[in-house]
## 1
Amino acid sequence: MSDAIFRADPPEARRMVMLDGVALIFHRPSGLTHIVAPPAPQILEALGEGDASPDTLLERLQRDYDFGAADDLAAALDARLAELETAGLVWRP
Amino acid sequence: MSDARPLVRALTDPASTGDLDPAGWTALIAMARAEQLMGTLAHRLDGLDVPDAVARICADARLSIDHGRRQALWEAEMARRVLAPLGEPVVLLKGTAYVAAGLSAGVGRSIGDLDILVRREALDAVERALIAQGGWEWVKEDEYDDAYYRDHMHELPPLIHKDRDRMIDVHHTVLPLTAKPMPDAAAMIEESEALDDGLRILSPPDMICHAAAHLFADGDLAGGLRNLWDIDRLLRDFDERDGFWAALGERADRHQLAKPVACALRLAETLYETPVDGDVAGKSRAGDALYVRRLLARDDWGGETRKGLRLAFYIRSHWLRMPPLMLARHLWTKWRGKAHHDS
Amino acid sequence: MRHEFRVQVGPAAFRIGSDWRQPLDQMAALYNGYPTPEIPDFTVRLFARRFWRRFLRPSVMIGGDYMLPDAAPLSLAHGMLGAEMGMNLQMALGQRRYLLLHASAVERDGKALLMTGESGAGKSTLSALLGERGWRFMGDEFALVDLENGAIHPFPRLVSLKNEAISLFEDSVDASRLGPLMRDTPKGDIRHLRPPDDAVEKMHEPAHPALLLFPRFGHAPDIREIGQAEVFVRLTQASTNYVMLGEVGFDTLSRLVTTIPSRAVDYPDTESAVDSVERLWAELAA
């Protein structure tokens, strides 16, 4: 998936409430509520800078957050991106 | 015996509701709900002075419609994302098409499943993509229904999305393969028009042809008042366009749908005072009155009336769709299934 | 329809039509004193599938503005249950003005206690019991959350007592508050109970929620905290119109979840449940 480019809706398309360390996201275009775990909210925020490949996203996340080991983060990123794509929160333009 | 004429009158001339008493309003609302026209009615009554209880019910209906509209457009968008890599034309049909294109027929309309039309040659690829990448899966049907859909109908067995619980019907033609008229689905796709996001809608004449085919061929005229209202609103949108009526006549012939289109036009004119072209609509026929009686078969409680007439239309609609032997087999299987459920 | 009965329950107005007189007479007796609306929000129909089934082995079909396919018919003796099921269905599928929670509610000192859980968890019986013991009964089936201020609006329909719960009330309440005993319905034995008078008189008085409980009947006594995210998810599952309401539903539910405490309560019998409720209320809400 590394050569895919991902896009997300602008932040105003979402409402987010943090509960017990997970994010409840109300997505306005679909009217659907999603419950996502980190780093999903951070991915959405990082996509606010513009469309990005997983590699670019990884750089943005490492720049802004301290997630610990980079290998784990890359795996978590792929998993969360897949979930976000299924949920319709990110897509490939 | 009461019928759905008050609903037709309120939709056609909303100001006429000014003389309704509480019982009249109560009946009107029950009929509108039963005919899936409450959202439409609420929009038609917008801005008029209605009793408080009615205003609240209309506000509820508008909320439902807004929700349904958002959901329908989202399902279309999710299908678009999954199917875009195929590079195939994807034509939205019915309610989703009307709201996506901003047509009057979409205002206040309740929308059920997502219906799309694709090229027959693309059917397998579309099905694979929806299931493999999109998260849709087969609705668990018994084997007979499944085989029936594949062999004889104009769509895949319905798929349902495993998270969103919404159905998609993928069509490759407009009527069942067993039906006598053979609309030219390839030509419909050819002539379809692109929306901004790349999804497509039928051309205006084809949209009327499809709506008319749908009105008569799909079931026993159930939901007929709503389907006919679609046709009324579409015709009012298209009426002024250059060459529309001539094109409609041509396309109806091409799709072997001249009769149903003509009849739909006459019924819309009779019930909703729709502006229609006399050449396409043709002269009124003796049978028209029967259709009107069937379409209005609804009482003050929203209940079905004229059971015999309904049954006649039901049998007739299946007769049109299938050769007789196949019909017998189909009905037998349905009855057997039903009897099993009842016991 | 040959017979008609109208009733207002809290903010929702119903008309029930029936091919038979009996179920509506039974309802009119138990709903005596409830307001009669002029233009109802919802229509429910009890009808015979075939004309002759009005008379011969009458079998009651349930219809209405909002319906589910394949609703099985009931015998005429269970007709009133059919009407109540029809009314519930209209609320579940047609309610748009409030966030509808499948929960029971009682009020004390102007504050509401919500109890939710799966069918058979005892929330209905518990609310009815508390209604006889100093609390104001607000509803045993649906709690209606105000979309603007989060208050709970009552929906004090008849309580539908099931099986063992029936005997808890038969000896202690006035016989005029009890409907006919309906044996062997699809849900077992059912007997309807008219809510206490104050519940009917105050059916238009909302109360702000102060505590949310998830009771579970038939387990050793236990009380557990539940995370807010889990509470949120469980309440979306306990709501039939959360998705329909869109963003306002999200706002309403997230406010409810983040502003009131919640606990899971296991109990072996109703007396123990009442004790737990009183204790938790004193500790967390009073």
## 2
Amino acid sequence: MMSKVGLIIKREYGARVKKRSFLLITAFVPLLVAGLVFLAMWFSIQEIKQINVLVVDPGNLCHGKVFTGDETNAPAIFSFVQEDVSLDDFQHHETYNGFDLMLGIQAQVITNKGIKGVYREPITPKAEYYIKDKIELRLEEYFALDRGISINEYRQIRQEFNFNLSSIDPDAQDMTYARWVGIVFSTLIFLFIYIYASQVTHGVLEEKTSRIVEILVSSVKPFQLMIGKIIGIGLVGLTQFAIWIVLIGLSLFLMREFIFQDILNPEVLADAMTNAGNLTGDAMSGQSSQIMKDSALIDVIYNGVPWSTLLFLFLIYFIGGYLLFGAIFAIVGAAVDSETDSHQAMLPVQLIVIFIYVIGCFVVFNPSGATAMWLSQIPFTSPFIMLQRISAGAVHYTELLLSLLLLAVTIFVTLKGAAKVYRTGILMYGKKASWKEIFKWLRYSK
Amino acid sequence: MEVLRVENIVKQYAGHTALDDISIGTKKGEIFGLLGPNGAGKTTLIRVINQIIGPDSGKVFLDGKPIHPEDVAKIGYLPEERGLYKKMKVYDQVMYFARLKGMGKVEAKRKIDHWFEKFEITSWYNRKVEELSKGMAQKIQFIITVLHEPKLLILDEPFSGFDPINAQLIRNEILELKKNGASILLSTHNMNSVEEICDSIALIDQSKLILNGKLAEVKKEFKSNTYAVQFKGMTFGFANALFADFSLEKSEQIDEDRAVAYVKLLKGNTLNHLLKTVMPVVEIESINEVIPSMKDVFIQAVQGKKGGNDE
């Protein structure tokens, strides 16, 4: 009996893996991802082009006092002039050809808080942020001095507070970033179910419309046929996912080694972080604190996420969710009679899957709330929700056990029900079954 | 000993009865015709025998024992509406179905080679089914049905889709399978093929079994005591000679002075009586009892005009 299911799995798997479309998509997706990453990297390199800023500063508020550190690759460099430069001169006079941006700082800037500038080419947001940050800092210091506060006092005031929340439980880890890992897992489960569970519908329908099923059911039980198909297609999906992960990983690795050595090199990243650390004492800027946050993310990814537990549970919910929705999609395939009908009939189920996923994305903000708690128990939503709650450290193991138990029971019941509908539906030609009929089929005992 | 025995099968669906107390049996080396109008319940019965659906009550026996899921290996089923995986290669496909029937790889390969060589189609091995014509695909399906040498073959409209030459080929194969001891349940609307190859028949109409038995006996049952009398002489005189004891059903003129008259004997009259009556008026050339064709039997049985009723 098992060997028949094995044969069906083998056929379902082999037939799909050998398809040209499978090979194309399997190769194309990593290429696409690698291509997008390449473009993103490429553009981020392009951004590094330094902006030459001409600061027209008649009041001499800034000259020599804008702190730029010793960054070699700063997004902008500043030059100062005290005499007025007309727009016309800036535009046409060759003296100013080398400048990309002209900023005017009037003496009354402290009162009207207005700084105007003109650029030749639009400035990237990153460079604009940098320029604004530097000029603002200096002007604030000037403002402080004007009010009789010393520069040192002002810098102490300006320094960001290190806002650090931690659990009362000394063993608990900071899960802020780990939650996002949960979202990534939920997304993978969602994509997998969305892409491959719908293939179950098509597979069932193919056998039904071509009447192969007539020959098949005289050799195997409909349940064997259904479960073999669901598992076979699931394995195709796992193969594709595995190849994608390997190919995407490999292409990122190759890009780091050969194209973007500087950007993706961990040592360079580490240097940047050290620089940022040095900076904090002198002049705290938003940028440096951002780098600190980045390093916290990297730290959490390597040390803060309970990987082994999460990966294990990911696999379980992944398989459970797929089996559950695979059975439902098999029902859809058995209940309809043509490809056109199947798209219509699949839509509600697909929308429900999307809806659950979207809700799941909101759970990340309140993983301990009642909604999240309930959704992580309901078997149709738990595969999308539970991992986020676990990665946020919001789940007691009894909750987890209950959720898994409910999921297992529901899979069992759904597969049994699906088998009944399937058995009747696959031999029913020429019409689309109504929901009423499907429930009637569910009640047939034989 | 009966290979297949179906006993008191009842199958009801919401709103209608598909099979109402059906009992039939087929012997070893017998071709059994399962007949009936569309929607009579034949396909349901075949599905019950194939264990695709379960009956509400009644039993199916194979070789005298209640049928068991593992028995699918002993049955070969060629459904009326049949298909194959379009994108799959012919050889892989036949191998797949053989393995599903429980055959080992080596044995299956040997049998596949045997059948493909027999049909001279080994060149199709690596072709995809979508490249084959309908008749070619039908041949593959026939091979899939018989490959595992089942003792019971269930063939639903096996000749549909074949040209006359290939239909003849399949007919000969069926007869050979019969000779080798297979019991064959044949469901068809083609009454000619029923007459040619069936040993026994069962006729189902509106979920009920209305006829069952040896082909010759069933046909005998439908004899209407009618004789075809070929004679030389005037048809008018012949007709006049028949009084109230006989009924002239119809007559056909062969040439100017010869004709065939179909005469039904009424009220316990004998053939001798008829001869005495007509011999004085015409010169009799031959007399044959009219045996109804299966087509006539079918139509009469289904329309409730059983020949013996007025006897």
